[in-house]
């Protein structure tokens, strides 16, 4: 499949999106709601490009559009820039405090938005791109959060805006958020340590590291990780820092030759794998 | 009505509706519509039961139930009055009709009367512009409405209520 990207003839797999082809070929297209780990959604409209076939040309979102044979795709025409400027001006009106949006807006020559309601700068950070929802649905598979309501009331929340028992406090939503709209806070000093998903009305209990006693993850997360990577939950009882420390200590006491090290490591991993499989089937 | 019997009523309504649909996520909207029709709103316990029954995650059910205007998570009246405010009705005095209905029933737009008999809602267009100004009560359309006809129209529902 051949199409032209900014005047260059480029081969693409059928069904591959313009965005993916462009990235492979070193052509920059700005995005907010795209992440390789989750399905594209076309929510932010920043990745728009201009597609011409024959006489007609139109604006499409490159994260969803798979080019047809002989399409001419332009990623930085005046028409494209105009659409992106409008999108950014709207985003800037909603989220004037988000650094990433201000940087993008500045890159497109926008210092301030015309669209303000006179109520003073909004503290809103969420652009409703839905990356958090998609990572929770598709990668973590817990379905703890979603969009709710519509129009100007649209928001990201848990079912019924209350404690979501589906949430395992993994923090994937917090990390994938491009604008820093989601946070969690750990309360390690409590008798029962907790992770508070601040914007999501949800608290998840944490357990302490078997070595250093730091509260670092939830039992539900252990169970989830243990299932998805096939490691017994006991391996996860120590926090990542203590795990590497004890691993380094063992290695220092008994420095193996490089091939032996590789073999030993492979063996432990494989035996763990086998053990967990046996455990499951018994 | 106490909480227990209310829950039992919701539960049996939802069970009945679920029985008419295949147990699959694609049934979601149909089920929500039928439950809304029967209970006049979608209580949380109903949504939880629907999520469970159709194997749809709760977040998805909440997403759909809060998205569409046809669904309400708070109790609606036994009758819904839609007041058309489309272009034709607007020109023919929909504003006066809305005011008259709201003052007669002592409700605001989107609100429910104290006795739970009516919910009043303005809508963009009912699609019957030749009847302007129009209102729709439940599924019945009333065309060329004038404020003084309202008592007669609403009276029908009041009588049915008290009968």
Mean pLDDT of chain B: 93
Catalogue the unreliable spans of chain A. Answer: none
CATH homologous superfamily descriptor of the largest domain in chain B: Glutaredoxin
The secondary-structure element order of chain B is HHHHEHHEEEH
> Given the structure, what is the number of helices of chain A?
8
CATH class of the largest domain in chain B: Alpha Beta
Radius of gyration of chain B: 18 Å
Biggest sheet strand order of chain A reads 2-1-5-3-4
- Which class do the helix and strand fractions of chain B yield? alpha+beta
CATH topology of the largest domain in chain B: Glutaredoxin
Residue fraction in strands of chain B: 5-15%
Which descriptor suits the 3D outline of chain B? elongated
Order of neighbouring strands in the sheet with most strands of chain B: 2-1-3-4
Low-confidence stretches of chain B: none
Q: For the terminal residues of chain B, how far apart are their CA atoms?
A: 21 Å
| Count of alpha/pi helices of chain B | 7
User: In percent, how much strand structure appears in the residues of chain A?
Assistant: 15-25%
How would you describe what is shown here?
Chain A has 282 residues and is an alpha+beta fold. In chain A, 34% of the residues lie in helices and 17% in strands. The longest helix of chain A has 24 residues. Chain A is globular and about 70 Å long. In chain A, 28% of the residues are buried. The radius of gyration of chain B is 18 Å and the shape is elongated. In chain B, helix 1 packs across helix 2, helix 1 packs parallel to helix 3 and helix 3 crosses helix 4. By secondary structure, chain B is α+β, with helices and mostly antiparallel strands. Chain B folds into two domains: 65 residues; 84 residues, Glutaredoxin (3-Layer(aba) Sandwich), CATH 3.40.30. Chain B starts with a helix and ends with a helix. The chains are: A alpha+beta (282), B alpha+beta (163). At the A-B interface, strand 6 of A face helix 4 of B.
